[in-house]
Amino acid sequence: MLRRVRRLCWLLPLAFIAFGVLLVLLLRVVPPPTSAFMLASDVRPVRYTWVPWSKIAPSAALAVVAAEDQKFPDHWGFDFEAIDKAIDHNQKSKRIRGASTISQQTAKNLFLWSGRSYIRKGLELGDTLLLEGLWPKRRILEVYLNIAQFGPGIYGVEAAARRYFGKPAAQLSRHEAALLAAVLPNPVKLHADRPSDYVQERTADIEQQMQQLGTGYLAALR
């Protein structure tokens, strides 16, 4: 009996890891039908329409990278310089600053739950490594653009573009893309259709960052 228990203690973690790897491999080619964050949403029904990379305006991809993770094309899932700065800032300020990359946010939104705990952070670390190891960068960004929350019950750039601007994601202007990216830190309190002074200032800053990065910044993503 003891031998069986020991064997089970080994097999269960291995089975869990194997399931995770298979799921990530499947979602490399299959659009996610939903996400953990959508399932946990208090707003029903959620607005979510998957669109492929080819039907997302390049400005939308550039805007979220400019706003959230400018080192996205080069890192392996973690920005350690940003983590060090966030730790230093959080030790001195009551306003908590995060340092999550787009890869980490994709893993969290797709598979995990909101909140702060060592267990969730540990799972996020493992899922992020899986995404970076098994998906190309373009796929990570494509999924992030499709599952990121842009408002209460509004998930993905297609649903957001149609809700706020009455057009598909493929037709988003540079300013509209920056406006959507500006609400990502807190899409419940920040509004793309009723932008506060803070959102407008952040939008202008994102547009400036987009200009500095250049239209070809993400061209090499595969």
Features of the shown structure:
222 residues; mainly alpha; Penicillin binding protein transpeptidase fold; 3-stranded mixed beta sheet; 3% strand; globular
What's the gist of this structure?
It is built from 10 helices and 3 strands.
Describe this structure in words.
This protein is mainly alpha-helical. The chain has one domain (31-213): Orthogonal Bundle (Penicillin binding protein transpeptidase fold). The protein has helices at 2-27, 36-39, 58-68, 80-92, 102-111, 118-134, 137-147, 157-165, 174-182, 197-213; strands at residues 47-48, 149-151, 154-155. A 3-stranded mixed β-sheet has the order 1-3-2, with helices on one face. Helix 5 packs across helix 7 (137-147) and helix 9 (174-182) packs across helix 10.
Number of domains: 1
Task: Tell me the number of helical segments per DSSP (H or I, 4 or more residues long).
Answer: 10
Main sheet: strand order: 1-3-2
CATH class: Mainly Alpha
CATH topology type: Penicillin binding protein transpeptidase fold
**Computed Rg:** 18 Å
Task: Summarize the biggest pleated sheet.
Answer: 3 strands, mixed
Helix and strand composition category? mainly alpha
- Any idea what the CATH architecture is? Orthogonal Bundle
CA(first)-CA(last) distance: 50 Å
- The CATH superfamily appears as Biosynthetic peptidoglycan transglycosylase-like
Order of helices and strands: HHEHHHHHEEHHH
Number of strands: 3
Low-confidence stretches: none
Topology:
Blueprint: H1 2-27, H2 36-39, E1 47-48, H3 58-68, H4 80-92, H5 102-111, H6 118-134, H7 137-147, E2 149-151, E3 154-155, H8 157-165, H9 174-182, H10 197-213
Parallel strand pairs: 1-3
Antiparallel strand pairs: 2-3
Helix pairs in contact: 1-6, 3-9, 3-10, 5-6, 5-7, 9-10
